[in-house]
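Retro notes (design track)

What went well: tokenization of the new backbones is finally stable.
What didn't: we kept losing track of which sequence belonged to which structure.
Fix going forward: every design gets posted as structure first, then sequence, in one message. First example under the new rule, 388 residues:
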């Protein structure tokens, strides 16, 4: 058994807004005292994180003067130097201020759209100044309650124009920065545009610089839509677009929970970690979650340590799965191939099509094969439960 101690090479990161969450919800006020960004950096260093991510306004209040901004950034950089923490990702808060109540890049008011671009240009500068290499776009309010208010195709066009503009800005500045689009189906809007990672992947191909833009899939967001998160991640990886990932947990059909990674759907979390480790994903493992509202300062640390520890335990389980003789023998049997159709590989040609049409298939034999997936799944469960 491993030590499960987080190390920099594990690339565990947290947002300022995650461990800094004060426990406000639609029904209740804050239950925890706010921490300053500098305090959060020290907390994350204490629990063993590698990096800290931020929205512009997690660090700099929206109404700060230029002098206040410079002092805050200097203090923050000093805390990073003292602790060795890095800032791999940055993003823009385009959802808290009432100016964004109808969205940001897709808002009906052109002045709001211009303000959203203005705010994002400045936030990109800040992110780059702090060393970020990935810039996330989560369109929390890019949507509708009533579809009478906005044409959905116009909204997509506006969103595309904004991302194109920002890509050109990054190129013009010579920044080493990639964009990662984060989908969410609802909350805080009733309907958010581009609601799933798959939708984002389709949208990216319509941009002027698709090579600069990937996705930031989040466990909770795909679960809110009742989808298999690992499958979404696999599609993003297959497309070369897995630029970042938001880890947390969420039951299907509930409110936006943002629970500790692996807190609820442990089997799904296992397949996800196994996938990321098997493919050698080398980006941040970012926890976009927060402690239960019942917790105080110690509970917040329990939460943060728990996210990383569960990831590492599941990583060890994935290695055991890959080494388990019985599981591997079953998989070999399941994936057995007598090579009789090897000639079909390598794409289409007319001769292959004709040969295939002339083949006869023993459907009874195909359907009669026992697949042993029950046994395989039970072995997986026993491995997860520590019984093997
Ligand atoms: C949410 C989102 C956000 C974003 C964050 C970074 O459900 O609120 O997951 O936490 O990830 O704004 O873009
Ligand atoms: Mn979320
Ligand atoms: Mn997120």
């Amino acid at each position: 058994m491993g030590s499960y101690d987080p190390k920099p090479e594990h690339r565990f990161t947290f947002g300022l807004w995650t461990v800094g969450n004060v426990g406000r919800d639609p029904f209740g006020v804050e239950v925890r005292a706010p921490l300053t960004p500098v305090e959060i950096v020290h907390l994350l260093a204490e629990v063993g994180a590698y990096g800290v991510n931020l929205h512009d306004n997690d660090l700099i209040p929206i109404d700060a003067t230029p002098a206040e901004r410079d002092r805050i950034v200097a203090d923050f950089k000093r805390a990073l130097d003292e602790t060795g923490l890095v800032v791999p990702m940055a993003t823009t808060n385009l959802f808290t201020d009432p100016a964004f109540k109808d969205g940001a890049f897709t808002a009906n008011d052109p002045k709001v759209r211009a303000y959203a671009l203005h705010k994002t240009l400045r936030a990109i500068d800040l992110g780059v100044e702090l060393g970020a290499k990935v810039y996330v776009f989560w369109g929390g309010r890019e949507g509708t309650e009533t579809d009478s208010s906005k044409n959905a195709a116009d909204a997509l066009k506006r969103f595309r124009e904004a991302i194109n503009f920002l890509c050109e800005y990054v190129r013009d500045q010579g920044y080493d920065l990639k964009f990662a689009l984060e989908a969410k189906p609802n909350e805080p809007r009733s309907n958010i545009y581009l609601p799933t990672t798959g939708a984002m992947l389709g949208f990216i191909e319509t941009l002027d610089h698709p090579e600069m833009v990937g996705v930031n899939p989040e466990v909770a967001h795909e679960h809110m839509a009742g989808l298999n998160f690992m499958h979404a991640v696999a599609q993003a990886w297959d497309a070369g677009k897995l630029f970042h990932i938001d880890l947390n947990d969420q039951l299907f059909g509930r409110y936006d929970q943002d629970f500790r990674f692996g807190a609820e759907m442990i089997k799904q979390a296992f397949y996800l970690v196994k996938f990321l480790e098997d493919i050698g994903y080398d980006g941040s493992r970012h926890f976009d979650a927060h402690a239960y509202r019942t917790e105080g300062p110690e509970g917040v640390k329990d939460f943060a340590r728990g996210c990383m520890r569960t990831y590492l335990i599941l990583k060890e389980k994935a290695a055991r799965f890959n080494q388990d003789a019985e599981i591997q023998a079953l998989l070999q049997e399941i994936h057995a191939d007598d090579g009789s159709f090897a000639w079909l590989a390598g794409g289409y040609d007319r001769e292959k099509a004709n040969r295939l049409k002339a083949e006869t298939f023993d459907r009874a034999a195909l359907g009669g094969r026992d697949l042993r997936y029950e046994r395989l799944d039970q072995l997986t469960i026993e491995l997860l439960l520590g019984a093997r």
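Added context from the reviewer: Residues 297-323 form the longest helix (27 residues).
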